[in-house]
Specification:
The chain is an alpha+beta fold. It is built from 9 helices and 9 strands. It has a 7-stranded mixed sheet. The protein has a two-stranded antiparallel sheet with strand order 8-9. InterPro entries: Aminoglycoside_adenylylTfrase, NT_sf.
């Protein structure tokens, strides 16, 4: 597998030979971790359409085994850019987003409405052929930082939404509509559960917390007892296990919800929870 310096050398050699590339910024500068040898770059170009060709980077960085064009599948995530996400035979991943100067500066200055944690928010300029860019360096990730305390209205509305999607999750499970049930558990329900957990972690820490992409740092940030319960919210496709996961979610929501409410100084809506659990129990009996 090629080293970081080898990757940087081959990228710089490639762009120096390409007159259309005027500057290069390395992005997503978080530490490389085990099993993740990924390098991301923004190329500032003066001919964006040249990079709409899938073969443009086919051979210059090594033997490519996969090309995924993110801009073609999700254009709203890559406005004004051509995104080449590539995997190479030696285990290296390269992501190259080509764009013009104004598009890059809009992203760097956080002017884009669509936040994209997959691109990251760390930048370091490594080449500028014409000095067209200002100083570009930001080495601290900000998109995954959480520092939010709910108002009573937001907290109550979130609890109401949670019990609505829990009801819907239960209905799909009772009808044995597995794809819909698992979607509701792992998207609709989990999004709200994770929001409550983020509130709890921030309130306990008393300072902004880096949650990681898609809350990937929950295991290290959450108390052992709570994370052990959180793991029980992931079932197999067996319906008995799905109901066990439902109960684990409800138990965890109650524990953490009460802790958040206590920290914020307002009551937890216990009556709503009791009535919704009774409602769902009656659904199971019919």
């Amino acid at each position: 597998m090629r080293t970081e310096n080898e990757i940087l050398d081959i990228v710089l050699d490639t762009v120096r030979a390409d007159d259309a590339v005027r500057a290069v910024i390395r992005t997503d500068l978080l530490p490389v971790t085990k099993y993740l040898y990924s390098y991301q770059f923004c190329f500032i170009v003066d001919d964006i359409e040249k990079y709409d060709d899938d073969k443009i980077f086919e051979t210059c960085f090594g033997k490519r085994v996969l090309l995924y064009r993110g801009d073609k599948n999700y254009p709203e995530m890559f406005p004004g850019a051509k995104a080449h996400l590539m995997v190479f035979e030696d285990g290296i991943t390269l992501v190259i987003n080509t764009m013009d100067k104004d598009t890059f500066l809009s992203r760097f200055n956080r002017e884009n409405f669509y936040e994209n944690v997959w691109i990251g928010d760390t930048y370091q300029k490594i080449l500028d052929k014409d000095n067209i860019l200002p100083e570009i360096e930001r080495l601290e990730e900000t998109q995954t930082i959480f520092a939010d305390t709910p108002t009573k209205e937001i907290f109550d509305n979130t609890c109401n939404e949670f019990w609505w999607v829990m009801k819907t999750f239960a209905e799909y499970t009772l009808r044995k509509e597995l794809p819909s049930a698992m979607f509701y558990l792992n998207v609709a329900v989990r999004d709200l559960l994770n929001k409550m957990l983020r509130w709890h972690i921030y309130l306990e820490s008393g300072k902004p917390v880096d949650m990681g992409v898609l809350d990937s740092k929950l295991e290290e940030l959450l108390e052992d007892e709570l994370f052990a319960l959180y793991k029980k919210t992931y079932p197999s496709a067996d319906y008995d296990q799905i109901w066990s996961a439902f109960n684990a979610v409800a138990t965890l929501w109650n524990k953490v919800g009460n802790m958040v409410a206590d920290s914020c100084g307002f009551p937890y809506p216990e009556k709503t929870e009791i009535e919704m659990m009774e409602f769902i129990a009656r659904l199971k009996e019919n």
